[in-house]
Protein 1
Amino acid sequence: MAPPDTRTQILDAAEHLFAERGFRGTSVRAITDLAGANLAAVSYHFGSKAELLAAVARRVIEPINAAQCAGLDRLLARTPDPPVTELVEAFAGPLFDEMPAGDEGGARTARLIVTIIVDPAEEMRRWTGSAEDTVRDRYLAAFGRALPGLSPEELWFRIRGILAVTAVDRVEVYNGRPPASLSPVAGEAARRWAITFLAAAMSAPPTGT
Amino acid sequence: MAPPDTRTQILDAAEHLFAERGFRGTSVRAITDLAGANLAAVSYHFGSKAELLAAVARRVIEPINAAQCAGLDRLLARTPDPPVTELVEAFAGPLFDEMPAGDEGGARTARLIVTIIVDPAEEMRRWTGSAEDTVRDRYLAAFGRALPGLSPEELWFRIRGILAVTAVDRVEVYNGRPPASLSPVAGEAARRWAITFLAAAMSAPPTGT
DNA sequence: ACCCCTTTCATACGTTCGTTTGATTCAAAC
DNA sequence: GTTTGAATCAAACGAACGTATGAAAGGGGT
């Protein structure tokens, strides 16, 4: 068994705390304490707190992007024009499946992503690479073929709708306030509900002028 | 014309800055500087930074809640069981209409709300009153009658989906990263797109077991 | 003219933050 | 055994933060 790499332990601790308290709400000291490392280790291994966030974000996003890409490949290998429902499944599914286990059904990771996306600070959007853009553009093209008559702008609006529903929905689960006495959402049920919800939404006819 | 009330100017400045930089990213000094007031004015008029946020949030949410409530009243006065599409319009419409003008189509205010909802800190959810719960429960009941066969849990999931789409969608518009060369979403178009998208989503048949 | 109460002001306090520094440890390379 | 370079460490830096304090200002009512 490999020794507990300090760098990895800092990544784990940061992922946990950023998700739990946000970027600004998490001090470097809290991260190194939880990781059992020295305060200066963050500067040494990552350069700065912002670059640590970027490393955390990349590690979380990467498997999701890969699964989205693979899912689309699988669909396109079968037919050049997959139906909307299957595109939704391939795009939104990994947002549920590719979250680390023991993570309250991925809610903590979902919150991490939302925290990053929503944050107004500039440095929070510095970490994205071209891989994300590639996946996005491929799905845009596929959805465009499956939904002829939809303007590119409205299509882009709907794609963002998918992200909004899958991400924010679970964030709100995470920090509470459901109406009194509603059993918490089970992980697998939420996934199916989201696919149902989003497949119907994506399949809506184009909005008239 | 009334004199520029210090308290109001602080509210305005705080609303602007909280939306632009988030709660933790905004210092009390930045607020009072923008408001042209003294640093201690925040403590004097509001007690603390957190209570200032609560006041800002209440001022923004109140007209939205009122419009949602009035819209539902109007529908119910016509028929005891309004169709799904009209319920969506009444619920989501005010999220577009009741945002202050000169606000980049409400995107800045939408971002303020999302910033507050998403924030993990405890004090960010201290300001909500019973008015919000009342509106939410009334729409839950109305949607429940319009969508028989939907479990309360899935219904709650869908309601949150509405909020997610209307709010987050415009936040992402606000801090950028659309695919290359897509004209920015016009305010009125986004509103219609959202209603189309959400009406179809809400009308989806219940997810089978 | 005096007092009272609200509002504003300059200043300071104590804390926490991200980052830097220079010494120290330690295992492998020579 | 000595050297080397990566990794860790305690300690400190200056800056920024939220809040508190006590004095000053302002304007009615008497």
Note: Chain B touches chain A through 61 residues (CB under 8 Å).
Protein 2
Amino acid sequence: MTTGKRRAPAGAAVLRDDITTAIRRALMQELAAVGYGRLSIEAVARRAGVSKTAIYRRWSSKLELVLEIVAAAATGKLPALDTGTLRGDLQLLFQVVAHALRHPLASQIIPDLLAEAARNPTIDQTLQQLLRARQQEIGGRLIGRAVQRGELPPDTDPEAAVDLIVGPLYWRLAIARTPLTDAYLDTLVEAVATGLGAGAGVPRPRAAATDATPA
Amino acid sequence: MTTGKRRAPAGAAVLRDDITTAIRRALMQELAAVGYGRLSIEAVARRAGVSKTAIYRRWSSKLELVLEIVAAAATGKLPALDTGTLRGDLQLLFQVVAHALRHPLASQIIPDLLAEAARNPTIDQTLQQLLRARQQEIGGRLIGRAVQRGELPPDTDPEAAVDLIVGPLYWRLAIARTPLTDAYLDTLVEAVATGLGAGAGVPRPRAAATDATPA
DNA sequence: ACACGTCGGGACGCAACCGTACCGTCGTTG
DNA sequence: CAACGACGGTACGGTTGCGTCCCGACGTGT
């Protein structure tokens, strides 16, 4: 019934990408600086050098703003992550996670939002499928491959395994915020691998990992 | 030079313990409900059924209030925690930690304050010596005993060991907030024990732990 | 029994923030 | 080239919290 818009927004009447980007960046910084609890739209606008209206035109509320931007920032980047051995996979995974958590913004925002998730169901839901589901998936595949290769017993509990993998690293980087050395990472890889049920340390000094082409 | 107080406060001029207790309880509840960022003195006073003045007479600022009360709540209770075997110690430790983290207030307050510690040096310092130092001490003793008993290699890194012990449980209870079964706890004990370098599972079905009286 | 002095409570001024309404501006489309 | 229409920015009322001040009430020690 001719409900159609008379004309498509164009010219000055279209959202400017540079403003949107400035808001996104400012939000992340502000979130890291004061946390979700104290986050204020006005502060984000100030930091971005933008008016509040510019924000409200794009997002309807503080919650929507945070969730959309954080989700966008967290999505993407999923390296194949298959080195051919359990210990290799663990080492690589730890390095990726450590690299991500080293980012000062991430290391402040993630624990903050995870804490907030304990009292805000919407945040909880979003983070659940954004972070933990991803971990379960990656961890599950990692475990599955190790089981197929015979490195781990077939009854390995993937859920417990993910906790064992993620827990110590998250604790050290995000909570204790202790510097992370390569030697420590090696120790952790070894501990997690044997803890999961793999054979004792360094079963095959070399070989493996070179012949990863299947069939 | 006769600077002395003319008289010691007495009668109605002394802080009432019941009011102090009400404030403490209200603070914990409020902290769990809204987090440190959103915490307001007025809300605490309202919840406690008390005037703001009553709070300001006892603590000078929001930060001092939170730190003093949280510190008081976290201090104390330190069971001997020595069962005679590494796995027994781990099992007991996990049960104690799990019990503490099951408390809904604790499971909301602790992650929140730990996240806040990343941006507030005073909170960081307090939690450091309140939680983590305690963990290092308990964990260190636990590891030390296991090494003396020959259950763990002498070069075991206590710091990494604590991460390995605390990390998974904290992740599951405080972050993922997944229900915890006894079977899972057993799996975790076994994984951590072998991960630390102890011999394969269930080395001595019984004995041990019964003859704990020293010389 | 009286005087003491702090108690708890209510009220105040100040500051920050929320979400909205209105304004002049600007680039595109017909 | 002219009109359209959403743009970004300012201004506004309403709400909330901070930290302080003043008040009458109250129980103890002299």
Note: Confidence is low (pLDDT under 50) at residues 1-5, 201-215 of chain B.
